[in-house]
Each structure stands twice: as C-alpha cells, then as structure tokens.
Design brief:
Layout (H helix, E strand, L loop, with lengths): L2 H22 L6 H29 L10 H10 L1 H36 L1 H15 L3 H12 L3 H24 L4 H9 L4 H35 L9 H10 L3 H29 L4 H4 L2
Helix pairs in contact: 1-2, 3-11, 4-5, 4-7, 4-9, 4-10, 5-7, 6-7, 7-9, 9-11, 10-11
C-alpha cells in the first residue's frame, strides 16, 4: 500500500470540491460567465473523480484484472485506436444510426396515423406499452436468427427499442395543444394537415425531442447488448464480451469509455438541435 497516492488523491478531490462550491456561488452577471461556470463545474468534478480513482487504485495496489487505473485505460485506448475505430464504426455508425433513424421515423409516422384513427389509438398504444417492456436479452437472439450476424440484426433491435418511445411521446405531444387554439384554427377553416403543421406539431416538439434524447442512449445500449448474442469479429459489444473472457479489463474499460463519449456526444447533438428548434418554448428561454 502506498499511502502517498491515496492522500494526494483525497487532497486533490477535496480541493476540487471546494473550488466547485466557490464556482457555483459566483454571480457573474453575464451570459458568457454563467456558461463558462456551467462547463467548468462538471469538468472539474469529472477530473477530480479520475484523480481519486487513479490514486486509490495505485495506493491500494488494486489488481489490474479487478479495476485498472485511468492511466492504464488511456494507454490501452491510445495503443488500440485502429481496433476501437473498427468497433465504433460497426456498432455506432452502422447499427445505431440506422436503427435510430428508422425506429424514430417509423414511430413518428405511426403516431400521426394513430392520431387520425381512434381504432389504432385504442389498439396499438396498449400493444406498444407491452412490446416496450420486452427484455432485450430475449429479443436480441431472435433478431440475430432473423437478420443474420452482421449489423442489420443489431439495427433491428435498435428499431424495436426506439420505435415505441417515439410513438408514445409523439402521440402525447399531438394531444398537448389546447382546445382554444384548435377552435381558433377551425374558425380559419384550416384543414387537418394545416392544423397539424402550424399548431399541433410545434406543440408536440418538446415531446418529440424528449423521445429523441431518450432514444439516443437506448439505441447505443441496445446495439452493444445485441452484439453479445452473435456478431462478426468486430463491434463494441463483441469486444467487451471477448476481452472479459481474456481478462483484458483495460480494453473493456477503453470500449466503455468510447461508448460513453459517443453516447454523450449523440445526446448533446440532439439537445443542441432541440434548443435551435424549440427556442420559443419556456424551458429553453429560461435556460
């Protein structure tokens, strides 16, 4: 045991905590200063957690097979960039993006169809709640049997996972516009599609983007888990399951880090698109 690592890590973590407490109490008076503090606080907190992790692992001599230090994970990540890029391309750029676009698009279209049909509203929505509760570990092997071992079966799993959140949220959003606004559109002799485009879809936009943000993380999780049940010798899920068997835990954590960064960037891109699209909404104006 090396106590200097432990003490140094704890001191750094406490110092970062004090600095964050000081930052969150600062009143800059400018929008730029507020945003800078909003970025600095989580960044400093994340760095302090990594330093604490590194110090405890080194100070307590934790075996690498149980928990590698962040420095060891970084070394493996930088030395395995071609493998990590191939896995990322197979899982994210193929399965996740394809399944996300198809699943969210189908959910949106079917929600509009449900809005036009009371039969579908009463029959399909309860079925959607049932299907959305199906466990992914039960669906993934079936999709592999149907669509093969390549990325198409993983995209099918992503479609199933993203379809119903988009369907339910869009259907709820289309019902969010008030009766007074709808009556006003009727007095102007607006058709269904004019009312949909000018009133109901703008009112449903926060609900739709909420589903898009939820699905941005569900899609990546679904694709990675689906790769555990059959895939070519490439992919983030395949690499995780294989390297765990080989006791290469640093490679597993490198894949986890790439997945976390990709998921966070994907979520952030959708959130930025939401701010640009729904700038009129009170939740965005107040941010």
């Amino acid at each position: 045991m090396n106590q200097s690592y432990i003490i140094g890590a704890i001191v750094f973590w406490l110092g970062a905590w004090a600095a964050n407490e000081w930052l969150v109490r600062r009143q800059t008076g400018t929008r730029f200063g507020s945003r800078a503090i909003s970025l600095a606080v989580p960044l400093l907190f994340g760095i302090s957690l990594l330093v604490l992790w590194e110090g405890l692992v080194r100070g307590l001599d934790v075996p690498k097979v149980l928990l590698p230090a962040p420095s060891a994970i970084w070394d493996r990540l930088t030395s395995s960039l071609p493998t990590l890029w191939a896995d990322f391309r197979q899982t994210f750029l193929k399965a996740v993006l394809a399944g996300y676009v198809i699943g969210c698009g189908l959910g949106f279209v079917v929600a509009i169809a449900i809005d036009r049909s009371s039969f579908l509203k009463r029959g399909l929505l309860p079925l959607g709640n049932f299907v959305s509760a199906l466990p992914i570990i039960g669906v993934a092997p079936i999709m592999v049997m149907w669509f093969g071992f390549d990325w198409q079966s993983k995209a099918a799993v992503v479609i199933i996972m993203t379809f119903f959140p988009m369907l339910v949220n869009t259907a709820s959003g289309l019902a969010a516009s008030g009766h007074m606004e709808r009556d006003l559109m009727r007095t102007y002799a607006s058709s269904y599609w004019q009312t949909l485009a000018l009133l109901r879809l703008p009112a449903a936009a926060p609900f739709i983007f909420n589903a898009l943000k939820i699905n941005s993380t569900l899609a990546l999780i679904g694709a990675i888990v689906a790769e555990f049940f059959g895939t070519p010798i490439v992919g983030m899920g395949f690499r995780i399951s294989t390297e765990v068997g080989r006791m290469n835990v640093d490679m597993v954590w490198a894949e986890i880090a790439i997945a976390a960064l990709a998921g966070s960037a994907f979520y952030g891109a959708v959130a930025l698109a939401e701010r640009a699209t729904t700038f009129w909404h009170p939740s965005v104006r107040g941010g």
